[in-house]
Specification:
57% of the residues lie in helices and 15% in strands. With 651 residues, it is an alpha+beta fold. β14, α16 and β15 form a beta-alpha-beta unit. The two termini are 47 Å apart. 36% of the residues are buried.
Length: 651
Amino acid sequence: MSHDQASYLELLARGAATEAYDRPALLARASGAAPDDLAAIEHAKQLALRVRAELEGRRRREAELSALFETAHDLAGLRDLDAVLRAIVQRARSLLGTEVAYLSLNDPSAGDTYMRVTEGSVSARFQQLRLGMGEGLGGLVAQTARPYVTDSYFDDPRFEHTRAIDTAVSDEGLVAILGVPLMLGSQVIGVLYAADRRERVFEREQVALLASFAAHAAVAIDTANLLAETRSALAELERANEIIRDHSGVIERASEVHDRLTEVVLRGGGVHDVAAALSEVLDGTVEFTDEDLDATGADGRAIRHGDDWVAAVSAGGELLGALVLRGRRDLDPVDRRTLERAAMVTSLLLLARRSAHDAEQRVRGELLDDLLDAADRDPRLLRERAARLQADLDAPHVVLAARIDGPGTDAADREAAGRDLTGRDSAGRDSTGRDTAVAERETADRQRLWSAASHLAATRSGLAAARDGGTVLLLPLGPDDSASDVARQTARQLGGTLRELVTVGASSPVAAPAGDPGEIAGAYAQARRCLDALRLLGRSGQGAAAQDLGFLGLLLADPGDIDGFVQRTMGEVVEYDRRRGTDLVRTLDAYFASGMSPARTKDDLHVHVNTVAQRLERIGRLLGPDWQSPARALEIQLALRLHAMSKAVAH
């Protein structure tokens, strides 16, 4: 290791800023270092920056978990509600890196919501603000019980802007605002906010983190209310010593439960440790399940489910599973609350485990991206990275391209097929105009597909990455597996997981990806061509390799002469459409699709039958008098499919 390369280790060791990593390369260049040495230094710099980014990410996640665990510890020893709420708001502001954080509570008697705790606020008007239900961002969160986020509040038309609210927000100088509800069961009791005085985008993980703090704040308020109720009950029943002793026993038991759960969390226990501790405390059998229980609500309340008790485990509105208590037909309020508290602790542990899992999936995706984009990667480094992920890149693999083909996709395909050469559809809408809801659904579908594919790849010692609007997988081939088998299995498994039609195209086997990384990019191109062919052939939701598609598959495996075949067979028709702006190719396709019936063709094209006859006459002059003979018709129909496929791939 050279001195310049070793200097990057020193920078990592002392936690230097990103700018400091440019200095070794600049010094080496100034001293006249050889190009190979400069390249090695640059490579070491990139590796060091990636390590630094990974370390920063881990430190950030550790800080988040530490803050959540500290908050849980505060709740176990709750004495001062205001102090706990201030601590929650301060930690939320620090971890999200915002300039301001604040918490408001609902006032049922006044029908509005008011500021309770602020951190980083400088405006007295803002600190005394009250919002009507449905007014502003916070009023909308309190009314709908859903998180809302905006990167520019004053430019966002979703919220009801009132003079009082806008004046207070303007005085504070806030621009980007995130608000999440404080829930007690299904009831909203307030809102927790994080805000900046500049535009920014809040990530999904940040929304989930703030929702976790909101859950803690709601627990603190609920616990304070419970303590108040307990004091009132003790004051009313202080003459009945037996009742007082019973009630004191309940409180002690609740405190013991909190201590047990806190101990499990602080010593790094898992979900099953929480279930085991809860089984002892509640004198029953507690299990965690991620199965879909119809009777499980997402509000976290313990409810009856047959002979069992069930408490939902959720975070940020997402249902992660449930804790199921068996062997106890009846539960008193304290035991029910105990089960609910344990469900919340379980959600924190699951979020921590998910963060670690997501980090591993990103590493798998980065390795596959490198295999696809950088054919000159050092095979030794690729093998080392793969070994850390328990993947063997010296074994035979197959590359798979996968996409969701649901109803929205079919509609988009039909709309695209109906556009004329001007790029507008029959209603005159521009082809670049996209419905926001459709775009959001497609983005969500791609994320779901990547998540399911990543899980599948991890279980099979493979790799997965999001790419080109879909997902690419690199999976090992077993001794008795074929590319077709793996494609069909993958389509079936992903489709079953997502409950959607998932189409999967497979490449020919790649003998050893690490030995020749350049083969992966070519195999991926072949898999994508196979995927596009399956969709054009109406085989959405299936998996196949090129060899499963007959003559079309041979062309997909070696596409060198596809354009030549199309040109020789129907090139004059394509060129005529291009020059004249006509629709002969579409007419030809509709004619064959309707069984060579002009009457049905005119119905499909919504034109007069004479128009169809004139177009067919023109096609006959371009293709020759025998164009409708069986042999020529077969070639023309194949050329039409290949022409459509090449246009789809180009787009």
